[in-house]
Write a structure and sequence with these properties.
The complex is a heterodimer. By secondary structure, chain A is α+β, with helices and mostly antiparallel strands. In chain A, 31% of the residues lie in helices and 25% in strands. In chain A, α8 runs antiparallel to α11. Classes of the chains: A alpha+beta, B alpha+beta.
Chain lengths: 366, 477
């Protein structure tokens, strides 16, 4: 199914009596396997409104993300949250879409400074599981009119509604960027260095440790500002650092953000959200290759196929999501982190009320 | 403004309900005396008042759970209250309700600067959170003007903003986790000291739900390192349009000031008379503040100056010291006080696309003449959050009603140009009946269904946010 308008989509959802597999660009194949007729939002495409002077863009959900980034680049602006391109890691093809990015709340390395996708999302339109068309939020960046369903829709993986339109607040692309690279260090040392860097006033916009143990710290801003802040960081943190210039910096962060180091390696990939100071312990417990992002707050872990990583990690402040695995493993292990009974009851209640017949990506989130 | 008729059945069993609450609370945890209850009859929207049945002031999450469980069993509405600074009537009681205040939940539970968070009980004030961490060079970013008094509980309920949210976001962007009690007494933990809560983003919908989904007793808040410095510049223009264009050009140039404040002539005059801040005599005034090290600030201000000069500013005053910065902010910060001296006033909070600023200000001027009421505009220009202040005389019959009608027309205009009814104050009772202007019945239904899940009996702050007629069936059920 490929609706060409929100009205079409509403009719299709209303009249279906079988489960639907909601697809944006189809590049983010995660979650429990869903059986159902494919419903593509690719027909709902186009930038509805772009006001550079107001830092605002509105696009239909099926708009290719590349079309949005190109339009923004022409005005020297960007989506602040650096969404991950999952194609290399997950071995998918297709065209990443605006709606898919939002449904996944895809947020990259700049999360530490500029927030997640949900933080830049200021409005949505969607069709819920009954076919009802709902709008929430709008196109202004300060809006507390009624409940914030905008954030609820971000990261709901198409289980509450099919997104038809998304509005974002934007940021200017800074004049310059640079990245400091350390000598290789342990995970334990790395999270301390990254926390120290993120605790300075120098507005570090990326803090990660790659597989080889190098720590990377990114600074963005006016050229002189970047030079000053890099120098200050080196003086504050001590140790030996070399500097990647703007183009090397951009390439490095794409590698980190898209977790390309795991792309060609066999095994399952987990995404672990954690209190940064616990990162060192968790890396020790995991006994597997790890890429640390978000200053240690996000750990990408590569485990042998079928490993129950949660059992290995035990109790910690955070949670683990199984991002890449065979369908069999995904069916066997919980993909999304198990929730406490009262939270699970609320989540289930919300799903039931928006999709009472269970037709939208049923079971995808568990 | 109407509120629902109190439920006679509940009023009739007041003694029984209070006895049950007394059994689980220490004497200082329950206020039943009428004179003391009167202190809770309104919040900062003082035009509306009602004395609640009782006021419960629990001192821990467990007591909150017991209070809510009892009220749930007895079918008694509960109105949560932070510090009572809501401008929208968010904490206005009804006669048949229990006020549940968090004023005694004031502990700081954990400060963790390496992981950049603080965990607090939610009765603590906004400013006290920053006070707790500023010794180590950190701060809590959302800065509503009431930050000296307002509680974190209320900030979360209303998703409060402030002057600096262009750069740092509002409450929801700085909230990592909550301990919350549902109306049936269930205690839930959502999120924590990590950057994203798993599963559906319930935290996102709880923040800004105006105390209708649960009572948040503890919160994990993101803290940030203070910038090396900050400095404002003040500039004057001879028309609102030109000032608006200048804002747009600054943003387009890739500069991200922490604050861009806008004042129109009536507001400039009132502030000048009141605070003597030395503001220029002009049509529109901008205060733009940038952050960083001294050299970084110089560079950004030089760029801003280049941009401003293209718009022929009639005044340019760059701060060179802390004293000068304070003086530039003095007038702006006393805007509300200045208005209060002239007259009674009503403060609106609609947000508009920045590009509509000149049109909206022109229309407000025309409406001001039609209604015969003066209005002054002060405005977070970077994010389009307007604060028109309508002046009226509460002692003059009909003036309040005229002012309310004028206010409603301004908010409708905000929605018409693509904005919203409220940018940071919340809906409360004040904008409740205008929700139909911004949202379709299906939009409101989708929001109310969330409340059905969290509070199926609609007992938590029930007469707020949604038009009374729209929520009537649910409240009666």
């Amino acid at each position: 199914m490929r609706p060409e308008s929100e009205q079409d989509l509403s009719e299709m959802v209303r009249s279906t009596d079988a489960p639907l597999r909601v697809l944006g660009g189809g590049t983010r194949d995660i979650g429990k396997p869903v059986t159902g007729a494919a419903l593509s939002t690719a027909g709902l495409s186009g930038i509805t409104l772009y006001e550079p002077g107001a830092l605002t863009l509105v696009a239909q959900a099926g708009t290719p993300l590349a079309a949005v980034t190109a339009a923004l680049a022409a005005e020297g602006q960007r989506l602040p949250f650096e969404p991950m391109d999952t194609r290399a890691l997950l071995g998918t093809d297709g065209v990443p879409s605006v709606g898919g990015m939002v449904a996944a709340n895809a947020s990259g390395p700049r999360r530490v400074q500029a927030g997640a996708c949900r933080d830049s999302l200021i409005g949505v339109r969607f069709v819920d599981g009954t076919g009802s068309v709902v709008k929430n939020g709008g196109r202004v960046m300060k809006n507390v009119t009624g409940y914030d369903l905008v954030k609820l829709m971000a990261g709901s993986w198409g289980t509450l509604g099919v997104l038809t339109e998304c509005s974002f607040k934007l940021l200017p692309v800074p004049e310059s960027e640079a990245t400091l690279r350390s000598a290789p260090m342990s995970a334990q040392d790395a999270h301390k260095v990254m926390s120290a860097a993120l605790g300075t006033p120098y507005e570090v916009s990326g803090a990660a440790r790659a597989l080889d143990g190098h720590v990377y710290l990114r600074v963005e801003g006016f050229a002189r500002q970047v030079a000053y802040r890099c120098a200050q960081l080196q003086a504050t943190l001590g140790g030996a650092w070399d500097m990647l210039d703007a183009s090397a910096s951009a390439a490095q962060w794409q590698t980190i953000g898209d977790v390309r180091e795991f792309a060609a390696q066999p095994g399952d990939v987990w995404r672990v959200s954690v209190k940064p100071s616990q990162a060192g312990d968790l890396v020790a417990r995991a006994q597997c290759p790890v890429v640390m992002d978000w200053g240690g707050g996000l750990l990408w872990m590569l485990t042998p196929e079928g490993t129950d990583l949660r059992a290995r990690l035990g109790q910690f402040a955070g949670h683990a999501t199984l991002v890449r695995a065979s369908q069999a493993t995904r069916a066997a292990l919980a993909v999304f982190p198990p929730e406490s009974p009262p939270v699970a009851a609320l989540s289930q209640g919300v799903r039931m009320t928006y999709d009472p017949r269970g037709v939208l990506n049923p079971g995808l989130m568990g | 403004m109407h509120m629902p008729e109190p439920n006679g059945t509940i009023l009739a069993k007041r003694d029984h309900v209070l006895a049950r609450l007394q059994a689980v609370l220490p004497p200082e945890g329950l206020i039943t005396d009428e004179a003391e209850r009167r202190a809770y009859e309104c919040d900062a929207l003082t035009a509306y008042r009602c004395i609640p049945m009782a006021v419960a002031l629990p001192s821990c999450t467990q007591e909150v759970a017991q209070i809510l469980r009892i009220c749930h069993q007895e079918g008694v509405p509960v109105v949560p209250r932070g510090s009572g600074t809501s401008l929208a009537g968010g904490a206005l009681p009804t006669e048949d309700s229990i006020i549940l205040g968090v004023a005694r939940l004031r502990d700081v539970l954990e400060v963790n600067t390496p992981d950049r968070y603080i965990r607090v009980q939610t009765g603590i004030t906004n400013l006290a959170v920053t006070a707790e961490v500023e010794g180590e060079g950190f701060f809590y970013a959302p800065d509503p003007s009431s930050q000296l008094a307002c509680a974190i509980a209320g900030n979360i309920a209303m998703n409060s903003g402030g002057a600096h949210c262009l750069k740092y976001g509002v409450t929801t962007n700085n909230l990592l986790g909550v301990t919350m009690v549902l109306m049936d007494g269930t205690i839930v933990e959502i999120g924590g000291p990590y950057m994203d809560a798993g599963g559906l983003d319930l935290l996102g919908v709880i923040c800004g739900s105006e105390g209708q989904l649960g009572v948040v007793t503890e919160a994990t808040l993101r803290i940030l390192r203070q910038p090396e410095g900050a400095r404002p510049v003040l500039m004057g223009f001879d028309s609102n349009e030109v000032a608006g264009e200048c804002v747009s050009d600054i943003i387009k140039a890739g500069i991200l000031p922490v604050a861009i404040e806008f004042m129109d002539r009536p507001c400039i005059r009132a502030c000048e008379d009141f605070a003597k801040a030395g503001y220029p005599d002009c049509e529109a005034l901008l205060i733009v503040e940038v952050e960083g090290a001294a050299a970084e600030i110089d560079e950004q201000l030089a760029l801003i100056k280049q941009i401003a000069q293209r718009h022929n500013p009639v005044a340019w005053r760059e701060s060179a010291s802390a004293e000068e910065s304070a003086k530039i902010w003095l007038g702006r910060k006393s805007a509300f006080g200045a208005m209060g001296q002239i007259n009674d006033y009503m403060c609106l909070d609609g947000t508009i696309p920045v590009s509509s600023l000149p049109f909206v200000l022109r229309r407000i001027g025309e409406m001001s003449r039609d209604y015969g009421l003066d209005v002054a505009n002060v405005f977070h220009a970077g994010d389009g959050n307007m604060h028109p202040l309508i002046l009226f005389d509460a002692n003059k019959p009909g003036d309040l009603e005229r002012c309310e009608a004028f206010g409603a027309d301004i908010l409708k205009l905000c929605v018409e140009v693509g904005g919203c009814l409220t940018g940071e104050h919340g809906v409360g009772i004040e904008k409740r009946d205008l929700m139909n202007v911004q949202y379709t019945p299906a939009d409101l239904e989708a929001q109310m269904r969330i409340k059905d899940v969290f509070d199926p009996k609609w007992l938590l702050n029930p007469a707020k946010v949604f038009p009374l007629a729209t929520s009537a069936a649910r409240r009666a059920a």
